[in-house]
Amino acid sequence: MLAATAISQSAADPLSGLVLRDAPKPEARPGWSLVRVVASSLNMHDLWTLRGVGHPPERLPIILGCDAAGYNENGDEVIVHPVLGDPEAGGGDVTLDPDRALLSERHDGAFAEYLAVPTGNLVPKPSWLSFDEAACLPVAWGTAYRMLFTQARITAGDRVLVQGAGGGVASAAIRLAAAAGAVVYATSRSEDKRAEALTWGARAALPTGGRLPERVDVVIETVGEATWAHSLKCLRPGGTVVIAGATSGAAPSADLNRIFYQQLRVMGSTGCTRSELVALLRMMEATGVRPVIDRTLPLEEIHKGFQLMIDGSLTGKLVVHPSASQQ
Ligand SMILES: NC(=O)c1ccc[n+]([C@@H]2O[C@H](COP(=O)([O-])OP(=O)(O)OC[C@H]3O[C@@H](n4cnc5c(N)ncnc54)[C@H](OP(=O)(O)O)[C@@H]3O)[C@@H](O)[C@H]2O)c1
Q: How do residues 96-147 score in pLDDT, each as one tens digit?
């Protein structure tokens, strides 16, 4: 089967380590299921692996791709919950298992025609959701759901700022927070993406660092250094910033004086549990909210997809079809 495989890492030239090549079809083993992948989607995580961030070189080569929707061996439509681990080791929360791994970290990922995962990681795909939409959910939308509802515990009427509107996680956060009745503000470097954010339910969309009309209760932060100071300044006293990523750099000034004087809460968030993914699906059914899809590419054009992500020109998610014949 054709697979997009990371064979080496380079911070300066990440695409030099990405090859499309034949890989053996994975074999089913006890407790695991074989999934025929219909759709996957690209995440920054795939790029970090190629850049050598958070993925040790001894775990290469590995097939990339953290998101998958497809068919199990019985022909059932499934979505893959991508966090592999032991919920008990995390006190009932698999994302807190110190030994957890995201798909494509220790086990081959979804940029291939077939994928093997623990059967417990499969979630039934509802018929009202397309495979392309389903492939956007496990990482980006699941992360946004946990940030908003589990970590920040937003409720209707809360004021929420989402930084970097065009991102996969950020676009999800805008749509989900708006659907939950929050007053949503967004920032983006791009005028076009700001205009899009308004159509997703944001009350206002400002250039990066722009002054909001009011302070907010919660900031959803995945951009990092480029927006961190602004995120802290925009919070009301006692407000909460939830961080799930640091695309532009992970070591800004912490601004400790502001954090203690304004009594701010700083929370990390990573991935989502299987139950949160199921709850996300219920919310999407109830509200009609669907992922923002920038475009769909065949696996053969995966290098182009990565370049669009590197250039920052995507709005929302890029869906990948591992095999044109399977659509
Ligand atoms: N912890 C987790 O479980 C988890 C899960 C998913 C993602 N993440 C992390 O979260 C981050 C976002 O992921 P993603 O998949 O949403 O990525 P993405 O789709 O590439 O979005 C990143 C967004 O960040 C903004 N951005 C990037 N560089 C910027 C800069 N220099 N200044 C201002 N804004 C900038 C851009 O927004 P505009 O173009 O609109 O300005 C861009 O669209 C990544 O670092 C990823 O690794 C973590």
A: 999 999 999 999 999 999 999 999 999 999 999 999 999 999 999 999 999 9
pTM over 0.85: yes
Q: How far apart are CA 181 and CA 91, in angstroms?
A: 31
Q: Name the superfamily (CATH) of residues 2-136+291-326.
A: Medium-chain alcohol dehydrogenases, catalytic domain (3.90.180.10)
How many angstroms is it from 223 CA to the middle of ligand 1? 5
Question: What b/e readout covers 211-236, taking b as 16+ CB neighbours within 10 angstroms?
Answer: ebeeebbbbbbbbbebbbebbbebbe
Tokens standing for residue 37? 């992948």
Q: pLDDT, tens digit, for every residue of 32-76? A: 999 999 999 999 999 999 999 999 999 999 999 999 999 999 999
Closest ligand 1 atom, residue 309 Cα: 20
Question: Which pair of tokens denotes residue 28?
Answer: 């089913």
Please give the distance, rounded to the nearest whole angstrom, from the Cα atom of residue 88 to the centre of ligand 1: 30
- Ligand 1 pocket: which of 223, 267, 314 to mutate (most atoms <8 Å of CB)? 223
Question: Closest ligand 1 atom, CA of 169?
Answer: 16
d(CA 264, CA 192): 32
Residue ranges lining ligand 1, Cβ < 6 Å: 43-45, 48, 139-140, 143, 164-170, 188-190, 193, 208, 222-223, 226-227, 244-248, 270-271, 309, 312, 314
**End-to-end Cα spacing for the chain:** 16
What is the domain partition of the chain in residue ranges? Answer: 2-136+291-326, 141-268
User: Is 95 in contact with 83 (CB distance < 8 Å)?
Assistant: yes
Can you name the CATH fold of 141-268?
Rossmann fold (3.40.50)
